[in-house]
Specification:
The protein is mostly helical and 166 residues long. 76% of the residues lie in helices and 0% in strands.
Length: 166
Amino acid sequence: MAAGTTVDHLTETYRAHYRSLLGLAALLLDDTASCEDVVQEAFIRVHSARNRVREPEKTLAYLRQTVVNLSRSALRRRILGLKLLSKPMPDMASAEEGAYDQLERDALIKAMKGLQRRQREVLVLRYFADMTEAQVAETLGVSLGSVKAYGSRGIAALRVVMEAQA
């Protein structure tokens, strides 16, 4: 007789102990599909190495140990996968939102064109070029008070136009 577990013995062991090995995997893992995969993989691995199982009565012990080891590996892969997952991407705006944003930008540009030249200059430098009031005053060659006044009046005029369009 050849050394190792025979295919027939392994098949009998499979039929007799599949459910108990599935139960063992279920104690270690959390979903049925993973448990079934682990048990199937355990039988495949023991089948491939059946010549190394010298005593057929130890086949079940080898299968149990293989199920435990494969369950541990599955859990390690899950944990590693969770650690490596990048942060989720922010929700992308829908096409409708993008179109609405474009309409708002167009309305704002149109409203900005209706402002007085100095009001428009102050608002563009202050809010679009991200300058401080002092930097705007220096750039335009006007006083800080003038920048504040032009800015305040410009925003009030924009608010009136934008609310009228809404």
